[in-house]
Amino acid sequence: MLAEDFGGGDAPRAGTRPADALTAARRVAEAAAVGGVREFLIRGTDGWLAACTAGDSALLMLATGSSTNIGRLRLEAGWSGARIAALLDDAPERLEKTCP
């Protein structure tokens, strides 16, 4: 987990739950033959939980209130996920340039 802002949560377990959710989403997508998972949404009674992949090594999860414009959320999450993926893909190169 790079960061979390869910407040009052158990940070070590908060990192594994999104991975578990992604694994479950992948299984459902495979069973439904819709291809690889790029995003998934959960609508709860009090809001939304949205997730999108950020390259091959990261997952961006966002929790919002029930009045959120979900189309806008998906759009912003997609842009953010792409940016995170680009940063992570470039990370080993940057590390090599900064380490003695």
Key words describing this protein structure:
single chain, 100 residues, alpha+beta, 3-stranded antiparallel beta sheet
Describe this structure as you would to a colleague.
It is built from 2 helices and 3 strands, in the order H-E-E-E-H. It is an alpha+beta fold. Strands 1-2-3 form a 3-stranded antiparallel β-sheet, with helices on both faces. It starts with 10 loop residues before the first helix and ends with a helix. The relative contact order is 0.12. The C terminus is likely disordered.
Helix content: 40-55%
Overall residue-averaged pLDDT value: 80
Unreliable stretches = 95-100
Q: What is the global morphology? A: globular
Percent of residues in beta strands? 15-25%
Q: Give the neighbour order of strands across the main sheet.
A: 1-2-3
The radius of gyration computed from the alpha-carbon positions, rounded to a whole number of angstroms, is 15 Å
Instruction: Note the run of SSEs as H and E.
Output: HEEEH
The structure class reads: alpha+beta
| DSSP E strands, number | 3
